[in-house]
Design a protein that fits this description.
Elements lengths: L1 E10 L2 E11 L4 E5 L6 H8 L7 E6 L2 E2 L8 E4 L11 H11 L4 H14 L15 H13 L5 E5 L7 H16 L3 E5 L3 H7 L2 E6 L2 E7 H7 L4 E7 L11 E6 L2 E5 L6 H10 L3 E8 L3 H11 L5
Parallel strand pairs: 3-8, 3-9, 6-7, 7-8
Antiparallel strand pairs: 1-2, 1-4, 4-5, 9-10, 11-13, 11-14, 12-13
């Protein structure tokens, strides 16, 4: 869907994006990650043609990115981008018309979305009278109403309660099923694991990690396993295991190379241990994020 090829952007003495390259698989949900000031927002602004690269090239669907691709993109920034004194219905119609809708078609489509979210009674309310979460739902509708090929969400669940978070998640999932490619920018790593298939990690303007979530987690695993059990554990017989912790009928251990996990599980069973669960411990994306950012940030 997107190809970023050696893209650079500098503001005065600050190099915001430094020769970043990556490819976004068509139809994927891609996490664009990085600490504050990493260059994510600058990159998004270039993808949406708000600003242009100093060097390098961005491709959209195989074509060099240009103004004609704006109508195929929907961008929901973290900051509220709504006119506070406008009424909700009129505001959404106005924004839909900017995307190419006639006034009649805009009203029809907006009503569908507001009925879906059960918020038709907000139609004549001013934006400034809505809560932060309510404004977020209005901004979501304005982002997706024209069914763009590429959707960019920057912290889309900010200000939403758990019920409305799940509502927006379901709508994002449905848009994905219908063929939209989605860029998802967030600091919440648990949301990355839940939602994203592919990730790109930016730090200090550089791309330091890229790939499918499941492959990255496998690549960073440390061969750690967890077993929980009932009853007691034999005191001997597992000297070949590197025990990390053992308390409250929970054993965590490192499995040396050359020893198969099925082999160890069979040993536990043969010793008569009443096993409740047995699993490999994969690193969380939060752990991977911290590890990679620390490794790729020069010491002061």
């Amino acid at each position: 869907m997107l190809k970023i090829d050696q893209v650079t952007k500098q503001y005065s003495n600050h190099l915001a994006v430094d020769r970043v390259s990556f490819e976004m698989p068509t139809g994927s949900i891609m996490g664009l990650l990085g600490p504050n000031g990493a260059g994510k927002t600058t990159l998004i602004r270039m993808i949406t043609t708000i600003t242009m690269p100093d060097s390098g090239q961005i491709y959209f669907g195989g074509e060099p990115l240009s103004r004609k691709h704006i109508s195929q993109t929907g961008y929901m920034p973290e900051e509220r981008g709504l006119y506070k004194k406008m009424k909700v219905g009129h505001h959404l119609i106005y924004l839909a018309q900017l995307k190419g809708f006639s006034k009649r078609d805009a009203k029809k489509e907006i009503q569908k979305w507001m009925e879906k979210f059960d918020i038709m009674d907000w139609w004549d309310k001013k934006v400034q009278d809505l809560s932060k979460g309510m404004q977020q739902k209005i901004q979501f509708i304005s982002t997706v109403v024209h069914r763009p090929k590429l959707l960019i969400f920057d912290e889309p669940f900010s200000g939403l309660d758990p019920i409305n978070t799940n509502l927006i998640k379901d709508e994002i999932s449905q848009l994905h099923k219908e063929g939209a490619s989605i860029i998802f920018s967030t600091h919440r790593m648990e949301q990355v694991e839940e939602i994203c298939e592919y990730v790109v990690l930016i730090n200090q303007g550089k791309n330091i990690l890229e790939g499918y979530v499941k492959d990255i987690k496998q690549g960073f695993k440390q061969n750690h396993f967890e077993m929980t059990y009932n009853g007691t554990m034999p005191n001997a017989g597992f000297s070949h295991l590197d025990i990390i912790s053992h308390e409250q009928q929970r054993l965590v251990f490192h499995l040396p190379k050359g020893i198969n996990s099925n082999q160890i599980l069979q040993e536990f069973i043969q010793k008569g241990i009443d096993i409740q669960s047995f699993r490999e411990i994969l690193p969380t994306f939060n752990e991977i994020f911290i590890n990679q950012v620390e490794q790729n940030t020069p010491a002061l």
